[in-house]
Amino acid sequence: MAASFLSSPFSHPLRRFTLHHLSNKPVSSLFLCSAAKMNGHVYRVPALDEEEMASVAGKTFERYALPSSAKRNGKGTAILWFRNDLRVLDNDALYRAWSSSDTLLPVYCLDPRLFQTTHYFAFPKTGALRGAFLMECLADLRKNLMRRGLNLLIRSGKPEDILPSLAKDFGAHTVLAHKETCSEELQVERLVDQGLKGVGNGTKLEFIWGSTMYHKDDLPFDVLDLPDVYTQFRKSVEAKCRIRSSTRIPISLGPTPSVDNWGDVPTLSQLGTELQEVTRGMRFVGGESAGVGRVFEYFWKKDLLKVYKETRNGMLGPDYSTKFSPWLAFGCISPRFIYEEVQRYESERVANNSTYWVLFELIWRDYFRFLSIKCGNSLFHLGGPRNVQGEWSQDKKLFESWRDGKTGYPIIDANMKELSTTGFMSNRGRQIVCSFLVRDMGLDWRMGAEWFETCLLDYDPCSNYGNWTYGAGVGNDPREDRYFSIPKQAQNYDPEGEYVAFWVQQLRRLPKEKRHWPGRLMYMDTVVPLKHGHGGGGGNAQTSKSGGFRGNHSGRRSRHNGP
Ligand SMILES: Cc1cc2nc3c(=O)[nH]c(=O)nc-3n(C[C@H](O)[C@H](O)[C@H](O)COP(=O)(O)OP(=O)(O)OC[C@H]3O[C@@H](n4cnc5c(N)ncnc54)[C@H](O)[C@@H]3O)c2cc1C
Ligand SMILES: Nc1ncnc2c1ncn2[C@@H]1O[C@H](COP(=O)(O)OP(=O)(O)OP(=O)(O)O)[C@@H](O)[C@H]1O
């Protein structure tokens, strides 16, 4: 690991990871979102109440259930190791574990490594909001498994310690899990394998592919020959592959072996994290029921799928885009399930460019996941998959102004405040703040990527580092090299200044045309001048001593055909 000049974590309110800040709130209290707040500035996503969410989930489970005549023909005990697949619907590992056994033990290991620090810059590996989302996912998974005659064993510790010991105690013939692709997860897979071999009772470890819309085995090329250009990949899979139907799961999955203590869903304080309440913006509800509820809400209840392509570049509020990403990242919903719901919508309501475009975006998600196999660790390295050489700054002050939303550019500051307050930022916002960090501030892109890793509810190593390497111009496709002009982006995507005024309160009293360029007296100095475009409309643009990126690429303007 590279020595980090930032070996001590930056001071920031999100870094509340000490055991003496204990909060005793039970996980159930995390589900509460008062009506008063919803009417004010917090939007629950999905906006369904608990009753409607349970009813929608129940109906969806029935729609995607295997007929009750389906029989399992396995013997003995199988262990199902849940990872980033916290769902019942369309869960191939769950189906395999059920059908290959007569007793099934579902397990989740709360790996302490998830709550340590990021690789280079020692930020919290999992921020408080994502930690809370995960706990909600576990509570909901347990509930949904119990409805089917199972339960979820929750243990704190490393999978390589927990799983071999369970395999021994329960005499399991197989441990089944979904396959991951990045080196941290692959290392855990290797350790679990070694641990199981060490036990010596012949327990097999079986991995199943299940995170993408197109199955890895159905690709028309070896994954190591993945095209470097997204469009080639998309055209090739669209022409030559079929998306498999989602796997139907029986209504009853029991029995489980008898277990003395199934373990509680931990409180955040037990994870060494303090509860962070969402005080503004979107408050996402974790779990499969909420994920299925959001699909129902966005497609069927609000009928928004048919306008997705026109609205998807928005930044304010829950409905300009699907907001499926947090549930996809934890595997609470599968892309194949979304695909089937799109098809159903197209046959029952309307098929148009918008209904297709959600699939187009999900193909980007697939692409980055397959790319992580092809690129390996180069995805995380400074030079990226193309090993681009360049000089980058790691100026701490500049970085902190970006992180804390104090750059003097309202559109950057608003997006960064949204990220730390809610754990979410729009795709448009992510592209703008990424370009600003890399091109205008000249900072090492990994600082931004690791801060996203801390904060994002939908953090996924493949999509996060894949998009950052593209944004930094070090991705595998040399043509993806973009500069986002701040004035243009502000004008095109927030023309009335509503978004910036929502997140930067003092801008609210300014006339709309001034909100993006308030100047130092009404707002603050800008921390760096812009490389292209005007540098602050009255603000005092200072020159950064840390310098910009001086790599061997051109910094061309965005071509807007990327993700
Ligand atoms: C710098 C940067 C970092 C990002 N980090 C992540 C990340 O860690 N996790 C993550 O899920 N997405 C990441 N994205 C991609 C994208 O911004 C989010 O997926 C999207 O904003 C989520 O909102 P949504 O579900 O409403 O998206 P929608 O616009 O409704 O799209 C539907 C789905 O398509 C997929 N998708 C859309 N755009 C992309 C994309 N560019 N790359 C991969 N998948 C995409 C997502 O699964 C998304 O849920 C990142 C983008 C950038 C520019
Ligand atoms: N799931 C993941 N999330 C975040 N980062 C990941 C994940 N999986 C792998 N990585 C990153 O992959 C990289 C591992 O690469 P590598 O083994 O080359 O590291 P290293 O040799 O320690 O790197 P360097 O020599 O640059 O310090 C690390 O940056 C690690 O954090």
List the helices and strands and how they pair.
Elements: H1 35-39, E1 42-45, H2 50-63, E2 65-66, E3 77-82, H3 92-99, E4 103-110, H4 128-146, E5 153-156, H5 159-170, E6 174-178, H6 183-199, E7 204-208, H7 230-240, E8 249-250, E9 281-284, H8 288-301, H9 308-311, H10 325-329, H11 335-348, H12 353-375, H13 396-403, H14 410-422, H15 427-440, H16 445-455, H17 461-471, H18 486-493, H19 498-503, H20 519-522
Parallel strand pairs: 1-9, 2-8, 3-4, 3-6, 4-5, 6-7
Helix pairs in contact: 2-8, 5-6, 11-12, 12-17, 14-15, 16-17
The structure holds flavin-adenine dinucleotide (FAD) and adenosine-5'-triphosphate.
The site of flavin-adenine dinucleotide (FAD) has 30 residues, from helix 10, helix 12, helix 15 and helix 17.
Features:
single chain; 563 residues; alpha/beta; Rossmann fold; DNA Cyclobutane Dipyrimidine Photolyase, subunit A, domain 3; two-stranded parallel sheet; 7% strand; globular; disordered N terminus; disordered C terminus; binds flavin-adenine dinucleotide; binds adenosine-5'-triphosphate; FAD
Can you walk through the features of this model?
The protein is of the alpha/beta class and 563 residues long. The protein has two domains: 295 residues, HUPs (Rossmann fold, 3-Layer(aba) Sandwich), CATH 3.40.50; 127 residues, Orthogonal Bundle (DNA Cyclobutane Dipyrimidine Photolyase, subunit A, domain 3), CATH 1.10.579. It contains 20 helices and nine strands. The N terminus and C terminus are likely disordered. The chain binds flavin-adenine dinucleotide and adenosine-5'-triphosphate (ATP). The site of flavin-adenine dinucleotide has 30 residues, from α10, α12, α15 and α17.
